[in-house]
Design brief:
The protein contains six helices and four strands. The protein is α/β, with parallel strands linked by helices. It has a single domain, classed as Oxidized Rhodanese, domain 1 (3-Layer(aba) Sandwich).
Amino acid sequence: MKLWILSVLLVIFVAGSTYLSADTLPDEAIQQMLLLPSRVIIDVRTTAEYQQGHIKEALLIPFDQIENRISQSVPSKETPLLVYCRSGNRANIAKESLEKLGYVQVYNLGGYEGVKKVYVNPDHSTGAPPTKKRLKKS
């Protein structure tokens, strides 16, 4: 497990990012982080943005509420937390807040559009909301 986490961190380091972002990280690094065991994906956008489309497994905790709400959803500070927003800026603010609270594995995945292009749900569908092409006719 530790070796696997170290390899993910090495990929991140090689990417040369000042903070983790889907806009600067290779797709493979994001995919590896999404495969972390027991990880929790957190959408830190507004409710309206979340309702327009989100990663299927993502919890909605807006960045300005994360300090007050995170312990209810994720009590263990060892749990890998993957945060995203629209562009990565609010996710970075949330990441810093979570680290100040003592969470030790917090990763900023960047923007929703970048994350959804590499995300695959456990049922092997993408994280994007259904489109007319993907809707099945009854």
